[in-house]
Amino acid sequence: MISVVFPVYNEKENLPAFITELLRVMQDMGGDFELIGVDDASEDGSFELLRAMAEDTPRLKVIAFRHNFGQTAALAAGIAAARGDIVVTIDSDLENDPADIPQLVALLEKGYHAVSGWRQKRWDDKPFTRKIPSRVANFLISKIGGLALHDYGCTLKAYRRERIAAIPLYGEMHRFIPAYIYWRGGKVAELPVRYRPRLHGASKYGISRMYRVILDLLLIKFLTRYMNRPIHFFGGIGLLALIVGTAAGIWSLALKIFSDISLVRTPLPVLAALFLIVGVQLMVMGVLAEVMMRTYYESQKKTPYDIQEKINL
């Protein structure tokens, strides 16, 4: 069986066409399948529409959150409910093309444990504000994570269920599932897929989340070597303090070298030391808070989401 999981947040206008396309593709593939939509507390009637569609489509399962918990939590809930040997994740805004799913599944059947989509011709109309920053982010993530992928942010991915069943997902960690599988000895492939500009609504994700994504990746590397969101707060402030401290230190040295101003006559060295110490402390606090949060969830078998209703599950 193939389980297709898709998060939903204010996609009422896109859902009818998306579900229709998805059903057609899965039926053409043959074999058993299920569709699992996870509504992340939409405010535009998306859940009501999904409920109505599920009444006429038994293969469509629906999970509704009580509050907005984010894309990672939505995918985690869908993956936890999936019964298939293969799990496919896809966005419900029609930017991902369901017609690419058979190619991803075909690669899994060749022995890969995860296949990640690589969106083609994306942000060609916004080279400086979106395309270049996106490439820089993917380059940094590839270097830190050790798995070179062109498009970590693409939701269209396919996995062997046994490889993702035990992966804990918090924060923005859903995009790092292929890296996590790779670190555990799995085989990961990347496949070029179509990218389609959305017809309705606006993108819910911006470049502003880049720093949180990189911090999450650093956290996973730390946890997997010996183990959600606190790092986003402490880490963000800590990084800012480190940057300010470094800048103050460079400035004070420049004043000494080029202007022959004694370091004891300027507060910059003290400020540099202060901000550097505070920055390191905040980063350490962020990691410790993250470990405590992970212990809280896993020792008590809690989840980072709260389900209000299930349909056909």
Descriptive labels:
cell membrane; 8 strands; lipopolysaccharide biosynthesis; transmembrane helix; transferase; Spore Coat Polysaccharide Biosynthesis Protein SpsA, Chain A; 10 helices; 313 residues; alpha/beta
List unreliable stretches of 5+ residues.
none
The CATH superfamily title of the largest domain: Spore Coat Polysaccharide Biosynthesis Protein SpsA, Chain A
* Count of DSSP strands: 8
Output mean pLDDT. Answer: 84
**CATH top level class name of the largest domain:** Alpha Beta
The number of distinct structural domains comes to 2
Helix content: 40-55%
Identify the strand order in the major beta sheet: 7-5-6-4-1-2-3-8
How do the SSEs run, as a string of H and E? EHEHEHEHEHEHHEHHHE
Shape: elongated
In CATH terms, what is the architecture of the largest domain?
Alpha-Beta Complex
Give an overview in words.
The chain has an eight-stranded mixed beta sheet with strand order 7-5-6-4-1-2-3-8, sandwiched between helices. It has ten helices and eight strands. The longest helix has 32 residues, at 268-299. The two termini are 15 Å apart. The protein is elongated, with a radius of gyration of 22 Å. With 313 residues, it is α/β, with parallel strands linked by helices. It has two domains: 2-202, Spore Coat Polysaccharide Biosynthesis Protein SpsA, Chain A, CATH 3.90.550.10; 230-299. Helix 1 (15-29) links the parallel strand 1 and strand 2. This is Glycosyl transferase. Pfam families: Glycos_transf_2. Keywords: Cell membrane, Glycosyltransferase, Lipopolysaccharide biosynthesis, Membrane, Transferase, Transmembrane, Transmembrane helix. Residues 3-162 form the Glycosyltransferase 2-like domain. The chain crosses the membrane at residues 231-258, 270-292.
